[in-house]
Amino acid sequence: MPACSFGLQPVVIERGDHLGGAQRSNFHPNLWMLGYPEETGEQMTQRLAAHYRELPVTTHYRAEVTRVAPAARGFLLTLSGAEGIRALEADAIVLATGTRPRATAALEQFAATCPRAIIGPLSNTIRDGIRDTDVLILGGGDNALDHALFLAERGNRAVVCTRAAFSARRPFIAACQARGEIDLRAHCPLPGLTCGDARVMACWPEGERAFDWLLVMYGYLPNTDVLDGFDPAIRPALHRQRLSAGGCLATQQRPRHLRRPATSPIHRSRRWRRRWPRASLPPARRSEICVRHKSFTQPSYHAMHRSRSVRRACPPAFS
Length: 319
Ligand SMILES: Cc1cc2nc3c(=O)[nH]c(=O)nc-3n(C[C@H](O)[C@H](O)[C@H](O)COP(=O)(O)OP(=O)(O)OC[C@H]3O[C@@H](n4cnc5c(N)ncnc54)[C@H](O)[C@@H]3O)c2cc1C
Prior knowledge:
Elements: H1 2-5, E1 11-13, H2 41-53, E2 58-60, E3 63-70, E4 75-81, E5 84-90, E6 99-101, H3 105-113, E7 117-119, H4 124-129, E8 134-138, H5 142-152, E9 157-161, H6 170-177, E10 182-185, E11 192-195, E12 200-204, E13 207-211, E14 213-216, E15 220-222, E16 243-244, E17 248-251, H7 265-268, H8 270-275, E18 287-290, H9 299-306
Parallel strand pairs: 1-2, 7-14, 8-9, 8-14, 9-10
Antiparallel strand pairs: 3-4, 4-5, 6-15, 11-12, 12-13, 16-17, 17-18
Helix pairs in contact: 5-6
The protein binds flavin-adenine dinucleotide.
């Protein structure tokens, strides 16, 4: 929405037929949402979507960008979808394609043929259909433990199996440890899996056990498939979020290749320059957030959630 306030004319291209992205089907309360504690993702999405519809933003639903080529003005996009194939010129492109649940190729293949296996959160079956059952949850992060608690509160028993130590926030770990229905297994190898009629058989070296449901909570991957359509000369590079030594995440720090003065079409726009004459631009600030993990796929999300538990001393300087 800042684009509207800068006098730009935003055009939104959405692959789906609705607004809201991932949070649209998040039935969990977002406990950390400032000013809206207890509001679920679904409720938050409805509130944001109602506001969005009042804004002067052109939105193409069920549309995808199939090609992006350099053009005199900036970029020439080819869109394909419900409205047919069309061309669109743009001065700047903002990629906000979000993330999708992550799994190994083998688990994705297993889930595609086994109705008792679910990859990622936000499933209506998890919300309404899993009651008084035995559930195997693979993964050791916030999502895995949040779901173990959610299911335990609904009469289920959960085994949570993670290949290393649990990486979820400490309150989640403590809450799971306090519940007899939840069995937390760190350093737990991925079992061999077989799909039966109404059960999933999990086979570890020490023995086999049947579960009613298998949930895979391996975090998220960014949706970067849109980059395939970019002309190689202008295809943005993919970077992992950089962590400096000591488990500290440097935020608001421009990567080396971007340290020259900003020259994107937005920065060149007359209105932007009037608002931020170059001489008045503040120097890029460095802020530091300590994190416990070496890498993650959603830096802002994880950093936000972890910042509370990790306000320990950061090393004084970044490399
Ligand atoms: C249970 C749960 C709880 C969460 N809690 C929090 C929280 O408390 N705080 C937080 O910050 N985050 C939280 N998250 C993560 C949160 O979902 C994301 O931060 C948020 O949805 C990101 O919004 P987004 O618009 O960047 O991406 P998304 O919500 O993923 O939206 C991306 C949109 O892009 C569209 N799209 C994808 N590819 C294309 C394409 N090629 N062409 C056109 N359109 C495309 C998709 O259809 C989708 O509508 C949570 C996630 C879950 C699952």
